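> forwarded from #structure-qc
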């Protein structure tokens, strides 16, 4: 039994999907390590109140970056992969790029118009208006940057994906460390770094991207197919992403910055699991999009258990040692949040186990 399991694991790791997932996972581990270093320093160098404001800024950025494209980003990965080797590849790319960019810019401008009343009515913080404004702009730039990553996902160019993602993250961390070393107040300059680095990453993508000539046009049936898929996807995608990132907004409505900071510190400890989920999601969706046989899809899903089961066991075990790690990570000021980390682990475990199935569906 153990020999068969070993052979199955070896086969899964040596498959194209396994190699791509491993490459993406190495990238995510590098990014997680760099981000951890920066986050530890930010938590320890910032006051709890300032870190609470920064956490809200980050939450707004992540929340909006996931919804302002209205699901067109993942629809592009789905169909960009399917048509990447077909004559319609360039036409498909233009179709989705146009919708992602126009939708993201339009919704970002709409939110910016109401940034002041949103900051005062929802967050009850007049001093948050400026950072909310930065968060909206950051969400737009992050969406453009993610468009570049999605292009490499759709074409399964995971080497380019890894280079762009790790280089951009490294640059952000180096800028952050430089600001910290100056000994100046961190809140505003660190927020600006999170704003401009994704934009620079998008420019880097434009330089890396190679254009191909149009060889075929899209028909009405293509448009109907893409629009129908996205109309279903947008409901689930926006809802899930919104619900998954709304927690800090609720906390900000009812509690002070210190509570938001504690929740954010706890969330940072579970980031490695989210990076693993992202690695699976990054590689599995484009691979399955090129697969036409249902049996192949079932085979990919069955092999996932050799990744999911061991990591799930480690997650459950982490309920015992992560509370102590939180105190080391964030300091004694966050000692009251140790029980919260155990609740967060259960939430992450559910997300981790459900992600492969949701991709297949």
């Amino acid at each position: 039994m153990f020999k068969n399991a070993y052979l199955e694991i070896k086969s899964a790791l040596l498959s194209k999907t396994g190699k791509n997932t491993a490459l993406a996972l190495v990238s995510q581990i590098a990014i997680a390590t760099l981000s951890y270093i920066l986050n530890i320093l930010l938590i320890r160098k910032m006051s709890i109140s300032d870190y609470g404001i920064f956490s809200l800024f980050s939450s707004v950025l992540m929340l909006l970056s996931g919804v302002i494209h209205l699901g067109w980003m993942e629809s592009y990965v789905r169909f960009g992969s399917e048509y990447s080797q077909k004559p319609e590849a360039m036409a498909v790319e233009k179709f989705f790029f146009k919708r992602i960019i126009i939708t993201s810019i339009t919704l970002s401008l709409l939110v910016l118009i109401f940034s002041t009343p949103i900051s005062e009515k929802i967050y009850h913080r007049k001093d948050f208006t400026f950072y909310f404004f930065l968060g909206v702009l950051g969400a737009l730039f992050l969406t453009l940057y993610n468009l570049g990553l999605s292009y490499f996902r759709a074409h399964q160019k995971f080497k380019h994906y890894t280079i762009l993602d790790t280089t951009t993250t490294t640059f952000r961390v180096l800028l952050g460390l430089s600001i910290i070393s100056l000994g100046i107040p961190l809140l505003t300059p660190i927020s600006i770094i999170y704003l401009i680095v994704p934009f620079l990453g998008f420019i880097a993508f434009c330089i890396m991207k190679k254009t191909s000539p149009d060889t075929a046009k899209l028909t009405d049936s293509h448009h109907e197919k893409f629009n129908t898929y996205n109309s279903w996807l947008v409901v689930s995608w926006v809802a899930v992403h919104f619900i998954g990132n709304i927690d800090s907004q609720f906390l900000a409505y009812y509690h002070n910055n210190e509570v938001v900071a504690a929740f954010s510190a706890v969330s940072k400890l579970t980031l490695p699991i989210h990076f693993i989920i992202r690695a699976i999601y990054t590689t599995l969706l484009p691979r399955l999009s090129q697969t036409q046989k249902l049996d192949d899809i079932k085979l990919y899903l069955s092999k996932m258990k050799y990744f999911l089961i061991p990591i799930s066991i480690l997650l459950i075990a982490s309920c015992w040692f992560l509370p102590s790690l939180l105190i080391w990570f964030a300091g004694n000021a966050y000692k009251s949040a140790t029980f919260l980390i155990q609740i967060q682990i259960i939430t992450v475990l559910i997300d981790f186990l459900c992600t492969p199935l949701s991709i297949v569906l």
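QC bot note: The longest helix spans residues 16-45. The chain is about 85% helix and 0% strand.
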